[in-house]
Each structure stands twice: as structure tokens, then as C-alpha cells.
Specification:
With 418 residues, the protein is of the alpha/beta class. The chain is built from ten helices and 15 strands. A hairpin with a 3-residue loop joins strand 12 and strand 13. The chain starts with 31 loop residues before the first strand and ends in a 6-residue tail after the last strand.
Length: 418
Amino acid sequence: MTSPRPSILAPDSLVPAPLVPDPLAAAPTARTAAVIAAVGTALPPHPTSNAQIIARGGLDTTDQWITSRTGIHHRRFAHPGVSTGDLATAAARAAIEAAGPAGPRPDLLLLATTTPDRPCPATAPHIAHRLGLAPIPAFDLAAVCSGFLYALTTAAGLLRSGICAAPLVVAAEKYSAIIDPRDRDTAPLFGDGAAAVVLRLGDRAEPGALLEGDWGSDGAGSDLIAVAAGGSRLPAADGQGPDLRCFRMRGRQVYAHAVRRMTSSAAAALAATGWQPEDVRAFIGHQANQRILDAVGDRLGVPARYRFGNIRSLGNTAAASVPLALADALAGGACPPGAPALLTAFGGGLTWASLTLRWPDAPVRAITAQPCSPFLDHVHAPAHDPDATHDPDATHHHAPTHDHDHDHDHDHGKAATP
């Protein structure tokens, strides 16, 4: 007879410890998989054009140059009163609402981000508190633009092991807080946003099932994508210029690494699943640069009509880019449920990851993140934004290697048409 496992106690002895599934009792079968049950997104309300980016930073470039080199026409910037945690909380709440009252209640929260609200503590526990989910475990995960796929892989493993029953995976970024507006190499690329998915246990054959993955890192390239100051190696201090405090990237070197690593990682995930590139009916890569996306898709051999994204209207939202593109494609009915799908990403670290899945049949809820006070959930009337402008991309729908814009403040039914 084996001795009982020690219980996991709640912080307050007067509060009963949450029920933790027994990993042995919940051992998965060969057919068990993590399944995407619902998706939520949150974006700032106003698009910012290339012309506005150029004027803001006094950049020596043109709208045509930015568009031709990156594929980006617009991006969203959060109001100064909106933090990464605010965006993440809004997207997570949207995912929970999309799942509905009968949907799984999250019992674990992972936040993938490069821009936490503070260096310490982690942002995830406060998000869980704001959602009324405490005392569930919650933690941040830092893998830069690969963060969502790293978090999704981690959550799926914990789910299949029986450690949790309904993990909530959130990816959120406020890159406008760390970008130097005068840096032509980065200022036109990045935007703010958040997305979240609720997972449940299911079968590998059903829509939304996460199948096989590949991930890796190479710290030899850690300086290629970095914020130099703010950590223990170089603490933040008064007088530090933007060269140290802001996000920096060596574009040409990053381009070569990104294409090579996403191509090889995606190919490895496909091989592990037993799929050929021509089998893929939905391919979503990290929305870093349209030329990178085209190069990866071409090298893999995925037909252009099955590549989906939203880089045109949202730019590079780092860890949030893959789930935001997934949400857009789901809301637009881009692919039939259950069809072979492939996700891949590359980010700082260097890091990379890929996942195969069956295209989800999951509800999507998309909302607009309005200005609010720090650490509070009540919403104030939006302040006047001098960068606010009409978004000419609002009527764009899915086309090969391009994107359509978000429909905010609406619930999207399963496989809804735009």
C-alpha cells in the first residue's frame, strides 16, 4: 500500500485547498489531447497609420517603404492608462465569456508577455484575481514572440498530465511602452494587443485538438532581440538613454534566423504528426514581417491560399500575434473545423516553437480595451486620442498571405462569416 501524497495547502489555513486532479488517476490515453474550447481578444480602439509613426518619431522613411518591406499599414497603441495586465484581463475575460456558463472554469492561468506590468511580481496572479479566479496557480512566461506557443505547449502538457483541468493561456503585449519612436528599425513594426484561449481535455480526432509540437532556443543570439536595461545585469537607472531602456533588434540577422528556425521547426512538427505541407489547410506564423511569412510559407510548400494573418492592420504584437491571427481567421470562417492546421513562431532568446492542431470549432469574443485606471476594472470614457483615425482596412477580409480587420465588441459564432 502506497502512502498518500501530501496535499497542496491554500495560503490561508481557513480557506480549503483547491482540488488538484491526481496525475495518476487522470493519466491520458494515446488519444487524449488538449482542445481549444474558446478564444478571446482585446485590442486598443484606434489604428495608427504609417504616416503617423513617421511624424511621431521624425523617421527618415516613407509609408511606401514601410509597407513594401513589412506589409504593415496600421497597428494599435494602448492608451497610457492601459497596461499589459489590463489588455490581458480583458482578453481573458472575453475568452471565458465566449466559453459560456457551461464552459470549463479555468483552474490555471499562464501569461506570455515581454512587457509585464512590473518587473516584480508577475502579472498573471493579479489577472487571476481580477477575473475572480484566485486562488488558482498563475504565472508569467517570457519567450518574447514565441511566448504564446511556449505557453500553449506548457499548458497542454499540464492538462494531459492531470495537473489541471482547464488552463487559461493569455498572450498580451504593450510594446508601445518599450519602443523608441525614433528608431526606424523597430518603431514601424510593433503594436499592442492581447488574446487568450481556454483549453479542455478531449480527443485527438476532434476540432481544436493540439497534436504535435517542436520548440527550441539558442542563447548565442540573445543580443539580437533585447532590452538592455531593467534586469539584474544592468538595473534601470535615471539618466539611461533610450538605447538601453528601449527594445532593440538587429533586423537583418533576425530575418535570417526567423526564416530558418520557423521553417525547420514547422517541418519537424509536421513530420511528428505525419502530415505533408500540402495537407495543411491553415497556416499561421508569427506576424513579424510579411516577407518573413512569405519566405517560411514558400520554403515549407504550404499553398498561399491557406496562409492567414493580420499583420497589415495590427503589425507585430509579439507574443499576442499568433492567437490574434488565429482569432481573426476563426471569426472569419477561414477554414472548416477539424482541418489540418499549423502554427509557428520565432522570438528573442532566441526562441522558436511550432504546433500542429485540428482547426478549432470554438466561439470567439473580441472586445475593445478602453482606458482605465491601473489595477481597477471599471472603465472610464475614452480620452481624446490625437492619433485616432478611421481605419481604411476595416472592410478587408481574408486573402492569401493577407488579413482582415478585427470586428470588436461582437461575439463570433463558430465558423461565422465576416
